[in-house]
Write a structure and sequence with these properties.
Elements (H helix, E strand, L loop, with lengths): L2 H15 L10 H25 L5 H13 L3 H21 L5 H23 L6 H11 L20
Helix pairs in contact: 1-3, 1-5, 2-3, 2-4, 2-5
């Protein structure tokens, strides 16, 4: 595996380690970045299989890890799978066999995936639950409910 592919794997791993994001907390930009990353993973899967054989499931396993970690809603899950499959099909058609060009394309796909994963990892997509509730209320034109302050610990009384 090339150094770029190693960096891509590490960056995707760090992104996945951040844990799942609730669907209502995903911005349209975050959803699109996930879809773009799924496409890059599909490309990488096809290009790696061209040289290592059909039994190599390295990038497919990373895609499954991403969908497990993200726990997407049904619509986003479908779009992620379509993007992965489209990336795979595009690169499989272009590079059906291992060659110098397929190796160069694999490095290029890893660079794109790395850039996406880094960008996603550097942006805070999660909202404080109270902020998310306030945004949803504002979108609906409602007055946000005020969250009560957390209860303080009772004072200890001496006998």
């Amino acid at each position: 595996m090339s150094p770029r592919a190693h960096i891509f794997v590490l960056t995707v791993g760090l992104l996945l380690a951040a844990g799942p994001t609730l669907a209502q907390e995903r911005s349209p930009a975050h959803r699109q970045s996930l879809i773009d990353l799924a496409y890059a993973l599909g490309e990488s899967h096809a290009l790696r299989q061209a040289c290592n054989g059909a039994y190599d499931q390295f990038w497919r396993d990373r895609m499954l890890g991403m969908t497990d970690a993200e726990a997407p809603d049904a619509t986003l899950d479908r779009r992620l799978k379509e993007a992965f499959n489209s990336g795979f099909a595009a690169r499989r058609a272009e590079f059906p066999a291992c060659s110098r060009d397929s190796r160069l394309a694999e490095v290029a796909a890893a660079r794109r995936g790395e850039a996406l994963a880094r960008r996603m990892g550097s942006v805070a997509y999660r909202l404080d639950p109270r902020e998310a509730e306030a945004r949803r209320a504002a979108e609906l034109g409602l007055e946000p409910a005020l969250s009560p302050e957390p209860p303080s610990a009772p004072a200890l009384k001496r006998p």
